[in-house]
Amino acid sequence: MITIVDYGMGNLRNVLRACTEIGVKVSVTSDPALVRSALWLILPGVGAFGEAVRRIDDLGLRRPILEHAKAGRPLLGICLGMQLLFESSEESPGAAGLGLIAGRVMKLGRGVKVPHIGWNDVIPVSPTPLFPDPKEAPVTYFVHSFYAGIIPETVAVTEYGVRFSASVRKGNVYGVQFHPEKSQIAGLNLLRRFTLVKPAAWTT
Fold it and tell me: Where are the beta strands (DSSP E) in the chain?
């Protein structure tokens, strides 16, 4: 079962619909105990970094999310959810992200229209469970004003005024800046691959 974290700022209905479409059982919860016990966790997000951090902390969800990740169980951050995996964001100085991936999220600019809304090629830079074929460049849907630069954890890139991380991975922690739930077949394929990532405690 996939558990979707509900902290009041996610595309919950669309993510839920997409997960149902690929044939997996889904739970949507803001209960810290259920988040802590989840096997696969999705952290969605739409909105401001600082407000998201505040809500996560107010609901007592920070520690369960961190425990989930540190136990080696799969975690997928989507859009703002990916940005929350980082330590901080230019959008909300002083707000502490989850810190699962080192670095700071930055604001798009340099002559491009913000927010970035539309379809972009996602170019894998190394094979990973979510992007097993480095020759395949799925086209996915983006809606965002902030981005993560190219870092050691970058596994796929795209470009909009600047080249940035379309996806990151650190162990069983994954993030995608785009919206797989709005990316049609390419997005459904990615979510399906996420459900095949085995928790670290599992053996074959």
Answer: 2-5, 26-29, 40-43, 75-78, 86-89, 101-107, 116-121, 123-124, 139-144, 146-147, 154-159, 163-170, 173-176
Domain ranges, residue 185:
2-195
Residue 79 annotated to the active site: yes
Q: pLDDT truncated to tens, each residue of the chain (204 aa)?
A: 999 999 999 889 999 999 999 999 999 999 999 999 999 999 999 999 999 999 999 999 999 999 999 999 999 999 999 999 999 999 999 999 999 999 999 999 878 899 999 999 999 998 899 999 888 899 999 999 999 999 999 999 999 999 999 999 999 999 999 999 999 999 999 999 999 999 875 544
| Catalytic residue of the set 68, 116, 144, 179 | 179
User: Residue 19 has which token pair?
Assistant: 């997960």
User: What is this structure's pTM?
Assistant: 0.95
Among 19, 68, 79, 116, the one annotated catalytic: 79
Report if residue 41 sits inside a domain: yes
The CATH number assigned to the domain holding 154 equals 3.40.50.880
Residue 169, domain member (yes or no): yes
87 has catalytic annotation: no
Residue 19 known to be catalytic:
no
